[in-house]
Amino acid sequence: MKSHARIFHYSSARCALFGPPTIIAGVLADRSDRVWTIRITQWIGCAQACLLAILVVTDAMTIEILFALVLMLGIASGVARPSRLALIPTLVDRESLASALAINSVVFNLARFIGPALAGIVIADFGIAAAFAANAVSYIGTSAPFSGNVS
Question: CA-to-CA distance for 28 and 34, rounded, in angstroms?
Answer without folding.
Answer: 8
